[in-house]
Amino acid sequence: EADIYQTPRYLVIGTGKKITLECSQTMGHDKMYWYQQDPGMELHLIHYSYGVNSTEKGDLSSESTVSRIRTEHFPLTLESARPSHTSQYLCASSEGQSVDTQYFGPGTRLTVL
Amino acid sequence: KQEVTQIPAALSVPEGENLVLNCSFTDSAIYNLQWFRQDPGKGLTSLLLIQSSQREQTSGRLNASLDKSSGRSTLYIAASQPGDSATYLCAVNGQAGTALIFGKGTTLSVSS
């Protein structure tokens, strides 16, 4: 059982609000990832981190930002939410060595009205 | 650029059938291939991971094979049950600690 958590699980919010999606893991993994998944579509990487103070943007353009101040915590922030940000956001982590299984959190389903 | 394709997109079978889900990828230079299960509105549960040097992995009623040279993997589910109903995702990465490239998934429905 993977120990990776996301809050909130569901969020409905109005346009223009600032939101932060939380992700934390207790496995001590250096590598963490944020993926975005629209209904019926593939997951696409939007941000990743190789360790503390290391963040990079993924292939899918996103207006969100991330930070990695502690190994276990990788929050994602939207400064001004828009309806186009409505999607499911999935956080994952991995050891980054040998077998390198990626473990996923339960996801946050975001709806921006 | 790596692309992952899963066929079929949807599959309906009666309980007890054995079935095969297919995954293909365009760049054979992969590090790992992972199969996941996703229930509606939920996160992903890792089912099996095959390293590039391996040919197959087994877990209970699940068996995943990998043919890296041809860019193909299959997930075999034996004696399917209604509880197996979910979307199955295939994903690959090119190096350890890098992001996964996902297919769109196969949505499986097993009727009792």
In short:
The complex is a heterodimer of chains A (113) and B (112). Chain A has 113 residues and is mainly beta. Helices cover 0% and strands 49% of the residues of chain A.
What would your notes on this structure say?
The complex is a heterodimer of chains A (113) and B (112). Helices cover 0% and strands 49% of the residues of chain A. Chain A is mostly beta strands. Chain A starts with a strand and ends with a strand. With 112 residues, chain B is mainly β. Chain B is globular and about 40 Å long. Chain B starts with a strand and ends with a strand. Chain A binds chain B through residues 2, 6, 30-31, 33, 35, 40-45, 48, 50, 58-59, 88, 90, 92, 94-107, 109, and chain B through 4, 31-32, 34, 36, 41-46, 49, 51, 89, 91, 93, 96-100, 102-105.
What is the straight-line distance between the termini of chain B? 41 Å
Strand content of chain A: over 45%
Write down the overall geometry of chain B. globular
Largest interface: A-B, 34 and 25 residues
Biggest pleated-sheet summary of chain A:
7 strands, mixed
Question: Proportion of β residues of chain B?
Answer: over 45%
For the sheet with most strands of chain B, the description reads: 6 strands, mixed
Give the overall shape of chain A.
globular
Question: Residue share in helices of chain B?
Answer: under 10%
